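Write out the 3D structure for:
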Amino acid sequence: MAFDEGTAQRLRDAFTHRRGVSEKKMFGGVAFMLRGHMCCGVVGDVLMARVGPDQYDAALTRPHARKMDFTGKPMNGFVYVDPPGFETDSALEDWIATCERFISTLPSK
């Protein structure tokens, strides 16, 4: 599955000044790793966000967010966000910040 290069570039730009970020192909798309943990990524034209189990229900109430069911079974702590949900730079930054808050609770790999 191809991924939207424009969204991937927006994520690259957003992560430019952050330390400990790497990029990895996975889930048929591209994921951005923070301190060795998957943070967020792009699958097709959809944002994949790792919000963590504590923010999962709240994330699902946000506009254009839905359960990540890549394998046919929802993955707790991960959501998909359809393009209108991260259309603006501020909306994308907000999703990234939510993911970073969760990643900050994990030990570095």
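The chain has one domain: 5-103.
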